[in-house]
Amino acid sequence: MSQTYFRKGFGLKDEIEGALTADYHSRVVEAIRDRGYALTVGDLTIRLAREFGFCYGVDRAVEYAYEARTKFPDRRTLLVGEIIHNPHVNSKLRAMGVEFLFRGSDGAFDFSSVTAADVVILPAFGVTVHDFERLREVGCVLVDTTCGSVLNVWKRVESYARDGYTAVIHGKYFHEETKATASQVTKYPQGKYIIVRHMDEAKLVCAFIEGHGNRDALLQGFAHAISPGFNPDTDLVKVGVANQTTMLSNESLAIAQELGASMARHWGDAALPEHFRTFDTICSATQERQDAVLKLIAEPLDVMVVIGGYNSSNTTHLAAICAAAVPTYHVEDAQCIDPQTRSIRYLPVGQRDPEQRDEWLPAGRITIGITAGASTPNNKIGETVERIVATRGESLDTVLTVS
User: Fold this and answer.
1) pLDDT tens digits for 93-139?
2) Based on the structure, what is the number of domains in the chain?
3) What pLDDT was estimated at residue 400?
4) Do both 247 and 154 map to the same domain?
């Protein structure tokens, strides 16, 4: 686009490698990996999911942010929102001098202080078309870390808008990624979208498609999740399905199937291609982590610990998968576990506020499963494992010495 827009890195990986290793590497995680993803200490057996933690998109975003600070050490550097949904990674960037821009009470980012002399990092979730255009008008350097999987979804909803199909997006309307994805349809005058959070909301849309829903009720129920001027009478005649990349994959597929069946019942099987489109836009890393945790919980486990930010969508979905099969504790980091009091502070699935539980580890010989969201660095996983082991009065010193 120009010398003020960068998406492909600065070729400085060798220069930042030491800092990345120091900030995010874990000897504990490597030790568990080297032992076949399982480690026994005392009466505890730790089993680690085969896929966990940083995905390629997160790796790239973090590396690119570090490269940006190395490339432009003397320029003010700002970040639109959070680079990823992990408090420790964002804290590291603050320590490196990165300033954060957040949405105001009106829901908009305040770019009034941004100048052409500044460097602005766009997060892995991407930004809306409107915010991108505002920053381009300023003329600042833009370092775009938007994940490739997110870009693939953008291309899909753009194609829907271009061809006159309303994008039905399975996601959270308040999530930065979904905001950015929905905005892509605005590139076309006829572009429309509606965001469904879960199957129950999808079924409300299906009911209207089949003539059983109430127009006013639909508009009111989706007031924060539809494009301006949305008219269900005309905008649900042709629909295409997409999803926020970090949603539960089986739910996204089920929603697409439900919508397709609804359109077929209303328009007939022969006319379905003219009224319905769907493509698998589930992020491969999200799918791999969900598949890996399903395999892990299929084995005998006494407890499952899921590590990652409480506002991380992919992490909360991993916790939901686990909680259906085994007692599960979603912790933000190792500080949530207190070995002295043998207590844990965790976010119960489906709740908004953390709770504390004493004596959370069952007595006797037990097996604990561990996984982490795609925005959780290895060092935070390792620290959590150390705290779990310490709760039993054990230590990993011998293990790490042998390693």
Assistant:
1) 999 999 999 999 999 999 999 999 999 999 999 999 999 999 999 99
2) 3
3) 73
4) yes
Confidence at residue 9, expressed as pLDDT on a 0 to 100 scale: 86
Among 199, 170, 167, 205, residue whose Cα is nearest residue 184: 167
Q: Which of 51, 177, 332, 386 is catalytic?
A: 177
User: What CATH number corresponds to the domain at position 67?
Assistant: 3.40.50.11270
pLDDT in tens, 170-227: 999 999 999 999 999 999 999 999 999 999 999 999 999 999 989 999 999 999 999 9
Domain encompassing residue 127: 56-147
- The two beta strands, 193-196 and 141-144, are unpaired
CB-based burial label for 276 (10 Å; 0-12, 13-18, 19+): buried
Catalytic: 177? yes
| CA gyration radius, the chain | 23
Structure confidence at residue 2 (pLDDT): 60
Which of 228, 260, 282 is at the close of a domain? 282
243 and 178 in one domain?
yes
Q: What is the pTM of this model?
A: 0.90
Helix 199-209 and helix 249-267: axis angle, to 10°?
10
| Cα 91 to Cα 112: distance, rounded to the nearest angstrom | 24
Domain assignment present for residue 14? The answer is no
Reported as type and span, the H/E element at residue 330 is strand 328-331
Q: Do 65 and 51 belong together in one domain?
A: no
pLDDT value at position 283?
85
Mean per-residue pLDDT of the chain: 95
